[in-house]
Specification:
The protein is globular. The protein starts with 18 loop residues before the first strand and ends in a 12-residue tail after the last helix. Helix 4 links the parallel strand 4 and strand 5. It contains five helices and five strands; from the N terminus they run E-H-E-H-E-H-E-H-E-H.
Length: about 150
């Protein structure tokens, strides 16, 4: 008779197996998100504007992109549309914006095939950690538990 008292191993991957790209023109926001995501165990790459992001996303092939909507050179909406073509079309995107958006604008952006969530700043770190673990099917590291 099998011993069923042992739990099955957690099939979720480790956060260190996943690369998250943060695209935000605000240095302090970008650095804070980078710090928090690294603390959570994710690998992180950053981009300060839309033009740089569109060049680098195909090169670094992130597993998820955190995208600010208000960016110089290319805005977030243009980036969403560009990423829907080619190899990057399956990369999930989490929108984080400091700009007030009415419900119809949010609904329109959420309809984009690559958008998984739309968040307004300020974002609660623990909530963002839980969301990323869910979207990337990763398990929190024992030391983090989303408790930034």
């Amino acid at each position: 008779m099998e011993d069923r008292s042992e739990q099955a191993p957690d099939a979720r991957s480790l956060p260190g197996d996943k690369l998250v790209m943060i695209v935000d023109d605000d240095d302090s926001v970008r650095e804070l998100l980078e710090f928090l995501l690294k603390k959570e165990g994710f690998r992180v790459d950053t981009s300060p504007d839309g033009e740089d992001a569109l060049k680098r996303i195909p090169e670094v092939k992130p597993d998820l992109v955190i995208l600010d909507m208000m960016l110089p050179r290319y805005g977030g909406f243009e980036i969403l549309r560009e990423l829907q073509n080619g190899e990057a079309r399956d990369i999930p995107i989490v929108i984080i914006t400091g700009r007030y958006s009415d419900s119809s604008t949010k609904a329109m952006i959420r309809q984009e095939s690559n958008v998984r969530e739309f968040l307004e700043k300020p974002v609660r770190p623990a909530m963002l950690a839980m969301l990323l673990h869910k979207l990337l099917n990763t398990r929190p590291q024992p030391s983090s538990k989303g408790g930034w």
